[in-house]
Amino acid sequence: MAARGHVQDPNDRRLRPIYDYLDNGNNKMAIQQADKLLKKHKDLHCAKVLKAIGLQRTGKQDEAFTLAQEVAVLEPTDDNSLQALTILYREMHRPELVTKLYEAAVRKVPTSEEYHSHLFMAYARVGEYKKMQQAGMALYKIVPKNPYYFWSVMSLVMQAISAQDEKLSQTMFLPLAERMVEKMVKEEKIEAEAEVQLYFMILERLGKYVEALEVVQGPLGEKLTSELQSRENKCMMLYRRLERWAECNALSCKLLLKNPDDWQFYILYFDSLFYLIDQSWAPPQEGAHSAEGEVHASTAQAISFMEDRIATEEAKESKHLRGPYLACLELIRRLRERSCPEAQQLGEPLELMFQFFVKFGDKPCCITDLEIFLDLLTPDQHVQFINRVMEAVPLGAPGEDGVALPGDTRALQRHLCVTQLSRSLGQQHALNTEGKLGLIKELKAHYRHGLQFGKSCLKTELQFSDMYCLMAAHVYIDLWLETGDQNMLWQCLGLLEEGLSHSSSNAQFKLLLLLLYCRLGAFEPVVDLYSSLDAKHVQHDTIGYLLTRYAESLGQFAAASQSCNFSLRFFHSNQKDTSEYIIQAYKYGAFEKIPEFIAFRNRLNHSLHFAQARTERMLLDLFLEADTSSPLEESVKSMSLCPEEDDIPWDSLRDNRDLTVLVSWNPKDRQLKEEHKQHSLEDDTLWLRLRSLTLRLIGCVSALTHLPASRNSEKTTENGVAAKPSSLQSLLSQLENTLNQATQFTEKQLQHPYPFVGPVPSRLAQALSSGCCQCQLSSLQLPLHLQELETAGLDESTELQTQISNLFKSLAVQLQDMLEKCKGDLLDVKDDQSKPQQFLLENLVYFVETVCIVLWVSNYCGSVLRPLKSSLQKKKKKKKEASTVTPPVLSAYQEFSSSLQSLLNQALEHIKSQEISLTALKLGALSLEGQTQSEAEETFTKTAMDKDRLCNERLFLRRSGTEGLEEHRRFCFWTEEVKRWLEVCRLMNSFVREIEKTNKNTGM
Fold first, then answer.
1. Quaternary structure per UniProt (predicted)?
2. Of 557, 552, 469, 558, residue with least CA distance to 513
């Protein structure tokens, strides 16, 4: 705990045990010790706060808050109490209360530098920029130090950045900040680099680039020393913005002479060169070309400059730099784009790339360097280029299998680079099936041979030959996509698992395995794979979607809830962490980082994945409750779900997914395109909109179910759950429109599928195919009609009753159709081949979700129809009428309830039949025959048993002959499928009980 050293000796001795208990996590003992101390010293405020911290950490938030407020009302000024209250409010996620605490402390002790600085930081946590400005100036008046003054200036800049009105920023906040800094400049009080950086930031935001350039080039610019070439980089940026291309060109030339391997300066050099050529720029007749020196304004000068750079490198005996050679290729590309004949003067790209390979082919970066220039080769040069570079690879004599292998890691890397280039040029894709199988055999031989070079590697290090294994896996995937042969996918899994057993830290193996297992419908190993990736911080947003996308759709409800929580923890901690980063930036004068932290926080708050994880988690919580009465209402209340409010920022959603995280070396025509990214974003956004509207409509149903008799009033609010009857109609219209958009989008998307290593398709297409969206919409329309019926009564609503009755019948038919789409074998075994049909399980998940919603709606229907039926019976008794025909809506509801119960029984029977078939598959996979496995089978079996991911493979003693591997793989999915069927079965049983209870309560 903080600040114990400031406590006076007697109190320090008394409080120390409580601090120790809290630090050690022994909160109960801390509470007991605080109680003992408070009995003797009732006015020891810090002890009360420490007790409140203990209560907060034991889950007694209300008691803790009450106790803390008792102390806060007294406006304490002792440092111990203030620090303890600050810690407590942070743990309660109530930073706004800290500001009130220090406001009171500053009022009582107006000359305290410490309290003023704490108040400033408290305002920084809640983003009160105007109050930060005032607090900073008040602090500067008490203690006239430069950092405090510039805290106030930076707070003005933040007001400008956060202002909704851009005009206000440009005319008031930024000019005021500029005048404040200029005052310090005139008085020669600028002391630190951070103050110059802030001045530069203000001028840049005001668009005063000339003034900013004068600052950088003047005496103040001499303070910019923390970063290498900081002044030059800022000058270069300003020259570009001012379109002073001559200076930009001259400065880039000078910088390239100093550092010929800095790629950003080559790009700036070429950009400025061609701008000058387009403008027909000519040097002045007298004086220097520019303020930065000589300017190159012709292609001849550029070619000469490149030749000089290469000549300088060629003169070296070792440690050649890659930059000049790659810059030569970049210049050829740009000259060709402009149809300049001078491009030939630099040489033939094939020869230049071959020379580059000779010099740098043994470096892993060679493939990424050359890959971007492969389009300079003509199609008829592809084979010639590969043959040329292959000649530069030192391989040994071919072995018995006809494969020539490298003798050391440098030769291995050269051969690997050639193989990667061959794939990038499309030569591997052009092979027929037999050729690809031969290629896989060769790649496996290279991979297994290369393992000998990594015997001394640590577990955290990658094997030198890992990329051979990964490429072979990609070729297997190519074969699977082309032929549909499921065996290719099984072989791919075996190879990747083998690779992972030798290189347990290879993220590419894990990501590809994760994707393949999900495609096959096996989610259980995915959780371990994702955990082993050890994703850090923002990676939960960039790759977290791989985990959350498949968990629920594959029936893993508990895992889905955990994976959503995993992502949400990161997003929620982002709020707290970013505030701390901002405070540290103020403390250490890193002012230019503060807007970056704010932008980063906003980007995460508007993340598409964040909105998806939050919505899916809320839906999961509701579905897993599966109760039709009070638990639904309680769940909705606990979520603070207001159906009328849409808290998703649709117009500013950010797609932070890393869609290029998987390495593939595919040729350009098979790579991920921008249109794929746009379609994927639209795909995910449409699915999110459907799920969000469904969630809000469930909230509406919950509120309607528990409204009092005056449920038709304009607005009713009960315990924080608000619902307008009109909001139901609005949300239904939005859902119907979104569903129409989704249907049209899916029809188009089926014609343009994503690349395998591209975006993961959302659940939208399968959900529409299963019929769940249409069925859920139909069921959610019932409450709207029931509201009208309740208002009209049974006597004068014949047409409305007929409409509701037809809707009940239609809903029963749709549910039956959905169930039919769930039927089939999860593992389709034909001709000794096992083909998982995971879409059946996904359809069943949608069926379960839909039944949940139908049950909630049915409960509401019962709550409306029951009073109407009772009223009708009372009227008959008063008039002593004979029994008449039951109103059609009551008969229809009764028939619907019966059909729903029958439907659920059918679903249970189907699940039980799946359990029987899966058990039969398990028993069929067992064998005690003593035949020998092939090498591939032994590898797969050993790897799978070592991992123990999919099921308890150790039950197997031996597999029989050539069928053993296939049977083993089928069994791999058995235990996981049974677990999922049992989980679904449990939900189905609860549904049947709910139907019986609803029927009983309704008396129908």
1. Component of the N-terminal acetyltransferase B (NatB) complex which is composed of NAA20 and NAA25.
2. 469
Tell the burial category of 341 from Cβ atoms under 10 Å away from its Cβ (0-12, 13-18, 19+): exposed
DSSP 668: G
DSSP state letter for 343: G
Mean pLDDT of 715-724: 44
500 contacts 510 by C-beta, under 8 angstroms: yes
Residue 425 structure tokens: 């040029």
pLDDT per residue as tens digits for the range 572-628: 888 888 888 999 999 999 999 999 999 999 999 999 999 999 999 999 988 887 565
- Tokens 């004949």 sit on residue: 341
Residues 980 and 841 sit within 8 Å (Cβ to Cβ)? yes
Is the pLDDT score of 455 beyond 60?
yes
Average pLDDT over residues 519-532: 88
CA distance 147 to 195: 8
Pairing of strands 833-836, 827-830: antiparallel
985 confidence band (pLDDT: 50, 70, 90): low
CB distance 422 to 428 below 8 Å:
yes
Lookup result for tokens 């590898």? 939
Burial 656-685 (b: 16+ CB within 10 A, else e): bbebeebbbbbbeebebeeebbebbbbbbb
- How far is it, in rounded angstroms, from Cα 211 to Cα 203? 7
Q: Quick one: average pLDDT of 307-319?
A: 90
Contact between residue 888 and residue 789 where contact means Cβ atoms under 8 Å apart: no
How crowded is residue 8: how many other Cβ atoms within 10 Å of its Cβ?
9
H helices within 73-145, ranges in order? 79-91, 96-108, 113-126, 129-142
> What tens digit of pLDDT does each residue of 110-120 get?
999 999 999 99
Q: How confident is the model at residue 652 (pLDDT cuts 50, 70, 90)?
A: very high
- If you average pLDDT over residues 427-449, what whole number do you get? 95
Antiparallel, parallel or unpaired: β 721-723 and 833-836: unpaired
Residue 1, both tokens: 């705990």
Q: Which two tokens stand for residue 825?
A: 């074998």
For tokens 């230049």, name the residue. Answer: 352
CB-based contact 620:553 (threshold 8 Å)? no
Burial 871-909 (b: 16+ CB within 10 A, else e): ebeeeeeeeeeeeeeebbbbebbbebbebbbebbeebbe
d(CA 37, CA 14): 7
Half-sphere exposure of 32 (CA within 13 A, CB side): 5
- Sequence-distant (6+) residues with CB within 8 A of 148 are 117, 136, 139, 140
pTM across the whole model: 0.87
The Cα 828–Cα 837 span in angstroms is: 7
- Report the C-alpha gap between 340 and 351 in whole angstroms: 19
Strands (E), 71-131: none
Does residue 956 have a pLDDT over 50?
no
Cα–Cα distance measured from residue 786 to residue 379, given in angstroms and rounded to the nearest whole number: 69
Largest CA distance in the chain: 118
User: In this structure, what token pair is assigned to residue 563?
Assistant: 């994976």
pLDDT (0 to 100) of residue 990: 61
The single-letter code of the amino acid at 685 is: T
The pLDDT, as a whole number, for residue 283 is 86
Helix, strand, or coil here: 295?
Answer: coil
* CB-based contact 466:509 (threshold 8 Å): yes
pLDDT of 636 > 90? The answer is: no
pLDDT at 922: 60
**One-letter-per-residue 3-state SS of 212-260:** HHHHHHCHHHHHCCCCCCHHHHHHHHHHHHCCCHHHHHHHHHHHHHHCC
d(CA 869, CA 692): 35
Kind plus residue range of the DSSP H or E element containing 877: helix 838-879
pLDDT at 301 over 90: yes
pLDDT at 711: 41
Tokens of 272: 């400025």
- Residue pair 962/934 in contact (Cβ under 8 Å)? The answer is yes
